[in-house]
Amino acid sequence: MTISLQKKQTISLEKSGQSLAKIFMGLGWDVAKPKGFLGALLGGGGASIDLDASALLFDAAGSLVDTVWFRSLQSRDGSVRHAGDNLTGEGEGDDERIFVDLTRLSGNVQSIVFTVNSFRGQTFDKVAGAFCRIVNEQGGQEIAKFNLSEQGGHTGLVMVKLVRQGGTWQLTAVGERFTFQPGSDVVGQLTAAAARAL
Fold first, then answer.
1. Which residue has the higher pLDDT, 184 or 192?
2. Distance, CA of 60 to chain centre
3. Half-sphere exposure of 42 (CA within 13 A, CB side)
4. Per its UniProt record, what InterPro entries does this chain match (predicted)?
């Protein structure tokens, strides 16, 4: 049974007392329909929206260990892998996925923060139906889903974070907005936003 996460809610990633081994974070979104009379008359969405999911790996001191995003599709230890960039948000279900093998993660990784940003600087008021979900890769069971209803003038959002607690992992819905500036230091911007969520 899927848990519908609320902002700041934390759950344990255990199944029947067993820690999960492989999961993925799925991100989905649609283009918001134009509002007002013309929007109702013409229907359909606006221009395509290019959102990008990223995973930032931190140690216990909050220092960045590794980053996985569309220009660096795999962590150095091979435990985290981005499935590729979706430039439009078209289609049903997940538009981007990041796979995590929790059993292969380096021992110094204490947390993984998942972010989403608008590559072209389009604001989230142009995005509709956005969500992220955590799925048990073995069997495809959806564990938790977080609806990203944070529409507005921001261009980035810290979605969820995984934190190692002893031998298990805790998942927290973060939902914190940030401003992403296209064309400047992408990893630096994502790291700063993700670090605030630790």
1. 192
2. 21
3. 10
4. Stress/Tellurium_Resist (IPR051324), TerD (IPR003325)
The answer to whether 43 touches 179, Cβ cutoff 8 Å, is no
Average pLDDT over residues 39-61: 78
What is the mean predicted confidence (pLDDT) over 180-194?
92
Are the beta carbons of 77 and 65 closer than 8 angstroms?
no
Q: Which helix (H) or strand (E) holds 125?
A: none
Hey, what are 155's tokens? Answer: 């261009």
Tokens of 150: 């944070």
DSSP 103: T
Specify whether the CB–CB gap between 34 and 43 falls below 8 A.
no
CATH numbers and ranges of domains, the chain: 3-195 (2.60.60.30)
pLDDT at 27 over 90: yes
CA 129, 52, 94, 141 dihedral sign is negative
CB 124 within 8 A of CB 152: yes
Q: Give residue-wise pLDDT tens across range 62-117.
A: 999 999 999 999 999 999 999 987 655 566 779 999 999 999 999 999 999 999 99
How high is the pLDDT of residue 40?
Answer: 44
CA-based end-to-end distance of the chain? 28
DSSP letter (8 states) at residue 84: -
Q: Which residues contact 167 (CB under 8 A, 6 or more apart)?
A: 19
